[in-house]
Amino acid sequence: MNPSSKTCDKRSKAAEYKLQRILNKIETLKISDSYLSQIKFPGKEKRSSKKITNYVKVYSGICVVLVGVTVKWFYDDITSKSCLVEVPSSSKSLFRPPEDCSMCIGVDDVVRLANISAEEFEQHYAYSATPVIVTDATQEWKAIKEFDFNFFADFYRNVKMGTQTNDCFFFAYKSGLHSLQEVFDMDEARANLSGAPWYVGWSTCYSEESRQLRAFYRRPYFLPRTAESDTLDWLFMGGPGQGAHMHVDSVRHKSWQAQVRGRKQWQLAPPPECLYACERIQFTVEPGEILVVDTNRWYHKTNVLPGDLSITIGAEYD
Ligand SMILES: O=C(O)CCC(=O)C(=O)O
């Protein structure tokens, strides 16, 4: 037997002795069983109610902390977003207000323009829904000579991007590529358009990225002088037979899109409520041309035509 079981044995003997003395006392006092069962033991009662009070205090404390943490999380969440519930961009078109079909009635082709003043452009085209191609606006751009796959691969591998200025978007389309890093890590054959076809789009989102890329192109000369350009530019790049599926955008403003390289066919479709009043139109944007189209109103689809890699750069303006 070990020492602790010895101590235990002594204690139980003592308890047995005390109990026997109590039973003897009960016997001599002739106390009935029913009286005994009604006796309350104040010490015990006090302890258990004290215990309950402590539990209540602890649980209330935990609840207060949990409620506080939840409120703080909820507050941080809603103040960091512009919307309480983010609607996936693919379903935003379901909730757009119906269009007034005068936007597309009589539009049966894109309008091609050159040498147009900012005033005239503002008066007739800048804020109308008529799609326009300006053919002479990229003559001075370094981008026309320098933008190719290797330019962007070097740029995105080596340029320090600075601070983030807005959201960053990446559209994989059917490429199976999930990020710019994956795009510029693709093997040489695929990058040279002799492997699996690909087409991707992305937005700039860092201060240095935008500043350094904008050194290769200019704000188009025909934009209204008071028009502000967004801080974010859009780029689309990929090979023949690829492009964007038919969709309508939900961006803030109308945009210009410069076809820096390659040839791209565009199909524009009126919004569904105007299908009987308006026509679908199709046209090709040639290298060096700038398309101005309201992609929030016209459904659109693109397809890169056989030949070179297509690179488009664009931006929204207000
Ligand atoms: O240039 C493209 O291929 C797609 C452009 C587009 O879908 C857009 O600007 O919304």
Describe this structure in words.
It is a single chain. This protein has 318 residues and is α+β, with helices and mostly antiparallel strands. The chain folds into two domains: 3-80, no CATH class; 92-317, Jelly Rolls, CATH 2.60.120.650. It contains ten helices and eleven strands. The chain has an eight-stranded mixed beta sheet, with no helix packed on it. Strands 8-7-10 form a three-stranded antiparallel beta sheet, with no helix packed on it. The relative contact order is 0.14. Residues 1-10, 41-48 and 74-84 have low confidence and may be disordered. The protein binds 2-oxoglutaric acid (AKG).
- Domain module tally: 2
| Multimerization state | single chain
Number of helices: 10
Which residues form runs of ≥5 with pLDDT under 50?
1-10, 41-48, 74-84
Alpha-beta content class: alpha+beta
Assess the beta-strand content as a share of residues: 15-25%
Q: Tell me, rounded to a whole number, the average pLDDT.
A: 83
Total strand segments = 11
Instruction: Provide the succession of SSEs.
Output: HHHHEHEHHEHHEHEEEEEEE
With strands numbered from the N-terminus, the spatial order across the biggest sheet is: 1-2-9-6-11-5-4-3
Helix content: 25-40%
User: CATH top level of the largest domain?
Assistant: Mainly Beta
Q: Which hetero compounds are present in the coordinates?
A: 2-oxoglutaric acid
CATH topology of the largest domain: Jelly Rolls
Q: Termini, distance in Å?
A: 92 Å
